[in-house]
């Protein structure tokens, strides 16, 4: 069953709002309950909650840039990309998987841009360390973006393989 028109837009905006809301609520709790660099550990110290403020982008890239350049690269361009993603998903006929992936990416992007504009930094607070596998400190928006990208990539790979299978063999 395909959802069209106004109902489709409402469903997209609802999913986007839930995505952004989860990110913002989690960051708000961390901002209120933890002091900077306080740590709460779980899973035998493999998962840590630690409050840090990231003034850059992914893994603090760009945190040493000067004012106007930093504003353009970390606020303006990502805001334009998120706006383009929103327009794209509202105006194009997309598969459910592709649409869901883009909702995750746009929602996560918006959550981090909102923080950067409102607070001057992005609140990061989760860290995973399994020795052989360790992450930087990240937040729910980062998870949303990465999950959206992984789903989109896997969908593209397996969709392409399905198309190859459907084509008759050339001799």
What does this structure look like?
There is one protein chain. The model has no long low-confidence stretch (mean pLDDT 88). The protein has helices spanning 5-33, 67-91, 96-119, 140-166, and strands at residues 39-42, 47-54, 122-128. The longest helix is centred in the N-terminal third of the chain and has 29 residues, at 5-33. Helix 3 (96-119) runs antiparallel to helix 4. The chain has a three-stranded antiparallel β-sheet with strand order 1-2-3. The chain has 171 residues and is mainly alpha-helical. The protein has a domain at 5-34 and 56-122 and 139-159.
In short:
It contains four helices and three strands; from the N terminus they run αββααβα. By secondary structure, it is mainly α. It has helices at residues 5-33, 67-91, 96-119, 140-166; strands at residues 39-42, 47-54, 122-128.
Number of helices: 4
Distance between the termini: 39 Å
Strand order of the largest sheet: 1-2-3
Given the C-alpha coordinates, what overall shape results?
globular
Number of strands: 3
Radius of gyration in whole Å, from Cα?
Answer: 19 Å
| Helix content estimate | 55-70%
Low-confidence stretches: none
Class by alpha and beta content = mainly alpha
Order of helices and strands: HEEHHEH
How large is the share of residues in beta strands?
5-15%
Largest β sheet strand count, sense and barrel closure: 3 strands, antiparallel
Give the rounded overall mean pLDDT.
88
């Amino acid at each position: 069953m395909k959802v069209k028109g106004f109902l489709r837009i409402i469903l997209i905006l609802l999913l986007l709002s839930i995505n952004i809301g989860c990110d913002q609520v989690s960051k708000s709790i961390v901002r209120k309950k933890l002091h900077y660099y306080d740590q709460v550990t779980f899973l035998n110290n493999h998962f840590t909650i630690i409050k840090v403020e990231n003034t850059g982008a992914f893994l603090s890239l760009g945190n040493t840039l000067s004012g106007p350049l930093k504003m353009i690269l970390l606020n303006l361009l990502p805001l334009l990309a998120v706006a383009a993603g929103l327009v794209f998903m509202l105006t194009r006929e997309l598969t459910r998987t592709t649409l869901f992936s883009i909702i995750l990416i746009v929602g996560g992007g918006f959550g981090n841009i909102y923080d950067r504009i409102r607070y001057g930094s992005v609140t990061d607070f989760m860290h995973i360390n399994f020795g052989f596998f360790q992450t930087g400190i990240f937040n729910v928006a980062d998870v949303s973006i990465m999950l959206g990208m992984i789903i989109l990539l896997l969908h593209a790979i397996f969709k392409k393989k399905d198309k190859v299978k459907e084509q008759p063999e050339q001799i």
